[in-house]
Amino acid sequence: MSKADGRKVSHDVREAIRIEAIQKWLDGAKAQCLSKEYPTDSSCIYHWISRYRSGGIDALKTHPIAHTKNSKLTLEQL
């Protein structure tokens, strides 16, 4: 089974997947099982768990991409 390319999934969907996976983890699911259910590496699941432990559900939410706000291109170049 190949892993899904997360870059092809919208930010809202990725956020929902992280929150759903963490809810299942809180209900007793193992990280290895979650990595199979959500085609991602188990290290990614552990990263989500770490983020959740340090900041709660808000830490799982999608953040704006920093480089899009401060483009170095002029309007003419864009």
Structure description:
The chain has one domain (6-62). Helix 1 (11-26) packs across helix 3 and helix 2 packs across helix 3 (42-55). The chain has helices at residues 11-26, 31-37, 42-55, 66-69. The chain is elongated. It is 53% helix and 0% strand. The protein is mainly α and 78 residues long. It has four helices and no strands. The N and C termini lie far apart (40 Å).
Give a short summary of the structure:
This protein has 78 residues and is mainly alpha-helical.
Number of alpha- plus pi-helical segments: 4
The number of domains is: 1
- State the low-pLDDT regions, or none: none
The largest sheet, given as strand count, sense and whether it forms a barrel, is: none
Q: Judging from the principal axes of the Cα atoms, what is the shape?
A: elongated
H/E order of the elements?
Answer: HHHH
